[in-house]
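Service request form, structural biology core

Requester: graduate student, group of Dr. S.
Request type: structure prediction, single chain
Budget code: on file
Notes: please return the result as structure tokens.

Sequence provided:
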Amino acid sequence: MLLLDGKIASQSVKDDLKKATQDLIEQGKRAPHLAAVLIGNNGASETYVASKVKSCSEIGFTSTLIRFNDSISEDELLQRIDELNNDDSIDGILVQLPLPKHINEGKIIDTIHPEKDVDGFHPMNVGRMVQGLETFIPATPYGIMLLMEHYDLQTKGKHAVVIGRSNIVGRPMSILLSSNLLYGNCTVTLAHRYSQDLHQITQQADIIIAAVGIPDFIKADMIKEGAIVIDVGITRVDDPTSPKGYRIKGDVDFVNVAKKASALSPVPGGVGPMTISGLMKNTMDAYIRRIAVPIHLKGDESVMKTNLRD
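Core staff response, request fulfilled:
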């Protein structure tokens, strides 16, 4: 079985971006600049944002972390985002989700300028993706595509089953896999936890993307021999034997599925690092589009760079 190690694949993407950033600086240009907005003190959000800031530092990007107390009003947050939209030194903006209940996430996402929406959540960018136009792809699906590219997983003509229908992972993943891309051209079934006869559906799949958010949801008897399985799930499970009091579990029963799969991503260390890489690639793309600098990066011809309308 091939272990789809996201740490290795992510480092390859980062190395490519680091080289491109160094070239920019040697040419007398500034580095790409990512602004991250963090509200409150949610532990998971703190960890995710810290990873993003650290990756910026490793690559050579400039990053700005803007923190607010969770009592910030929606109007105050909207005003700050508007300021970031108009700051010409900033190429990408991300607002770490989830937000406090009194703040409308949709309104916040809509306010981020589409040209700086490196999370790929703005309706305009989602629409461009559906229409097969160049856009920012949501970071996790982008990271999965980059992972498949790194390991050269052949997808053309394969049957892919995506389990999970969120706007962040499942729906965009189904669009990418069905598109006319180097690592696309699949026949795609989009399923979810309530799909009838799910076992029969997944047993027909050559590729399974599990993004349902239920630990060990995908069992060995649900996949066929030789299937490629990519686990997007990340759930904290109580574990008194762990120093942290919990451990991270994916959607896939890793030990048993590994006996049948031809390729499998681990949790942690699989899709997680690739999500960060997808965000970093989007930030560089935002910079390139705004500054109009010609830069060629690995993967530019495989993800959202070819004709998706065919």
